[in-house]
Amino acid sequence: MTTVETAPATPLTWRPPAGALWSGRWVDGASTMPVHDPEDGRLLGHVTDTSPAEVDEAVTGVAAAVASGASWPAWRRREALDTAAGLVLRHRERLAEVISREGCKTLREANGEVSRAAETLRLSAQQTHRLTGETLPFSDTSRGEGRLGWYTREPVGVVAAITPFNDPLNLVAHKVGPALAGGNGVVLKPAEATPLTALAFAEILLDAGVPAGRIAVVPGTGGGAGRALVSHPLVDLVSFTGGHRTGDAVAGAAGAKKTLMELGGNNAVLVLDDADTRAAAQAVVAGAFGVAGQNCLSVQRVFVAARVFAPLLRDVLAATEELRVGSKADLRTDIGPLISEREARRVEEWVREAREGGAVVRAGGRRDGTFYWPTVLTDVPADAKVMTEEIFGPVLVVEPVDTVDQAVARANDTRYGLQAGVFTTSLDTALDIAERLRVGAVMINDSSDFRIDAMPFGGPKRSGVGREGVRYAVEAMTEPKVVAVRRGA
Known about the structure:
Layout: E1 20-22, E2 25-27, E3 32-36, E4 43-48, H1 52-68, H2 74-90, H3 92-102, H4 107-127, E5 134-136, E6 147-155, E7 158-162, H5 170-181, E8 185-189, H6 195-208, E9 215-217, H7 222-230, E10 237-241, H8 244-254, E11 258-262, E12 267-271, H9 277-289, E13 299-305, H10 309-321, H11 341-356, E14 360-363, E15 367-368, E16 371-372, E17 375-378, H12 385-388, E18 395-401, H13 404-412, E19 419-423, H14 427-436, E20 441-444, E21 464-465, H15 470-476, E22 478-486
């Protein structure tokens, strides 16, 4: 692995029209907060640090636009979202630059995210065709005789969207796209570290024809803008992606209203003794260290049949050593920085704790500022944080197991349940394991780090509440409304 080579910092080629968006206009609030590049600390600009009073203005404006604003029929929503998908691709270079500079993705990874966001918007546009209902069997009971009726799917109203730093465009699109497709209004609070991407995206949505009153962007802190937003009485649904501790706080502040929450994972991959260890190793390394491990789907734990543990570990270490750590702007870079030095120090401390408990560092284990080298551990104590918690950093635990039952038990031995991977040539065995793993998705002969934007996404236990994925988010963000007619009245 190479040493960190930081590219010379250059100013962003795009600046937002203002530091926030609400009440149908771009505004600069009373307070501001800076946005920095985590790679070199360079100041990229300022956005509004939205106050609770300003959040109230934003939510009230969106609620008014939904309740009494101009009609926005499904076909117009579809056209706007399709147009937005095209504009996202047209502005790929600008968006990729903003994603990479304010966040933790390499420029190569940021380009991939732009494509994903366009796909998410395209899928959202398609869902406007599916906002259908059905007739209801009133005549099936004597109390319903002489009546006929049906239900339709109607918008919930105002959606509060709170998004994380690691996918600052596509995860915003995953909340905003379905909300708009369902006919709602959206108030978006992006992650404190990555608000510029959200503002760039909002500008594209407005250019695409989304009514200005139906979307607001309120950058700010979780305890300030975030709490004011989720607790606002005019917010009808909260869609949140982040850690489970923050999720608990969001649920408490939101009270008795609908919530969608994706709260992370501690994902396992099982490699059985009949697996292609070289293919498994390549998939595991890619799944563990993409975006420097700052991904809820990252591979964190690998349980390997003892008979193939040595060759699997050898191939994992070889693939890890080939990774290039360096500047996000360098297209040759595989591993960029963590989102902050505080997070890099936390990862360093968790690895140190594991080592003091007897873990062996097979690769990596080194920090330089916000960069942490891709790290492979073995012999990790069962109670170490790198084994029990979501590390959200470039650390991989590889452990041998004696039986399939042991592998399944260890994979399930976590408070999370997002996704898992299984490598085997036996389809029957893979399907049996898939039934026994308590997770939201099982990838057979692939790592846990795989998702298409059309699939239901989420998991049990601490991994969340409900499911994202465009179709499923649209369903959650709309509600059935029944109309019944009493004939002859």
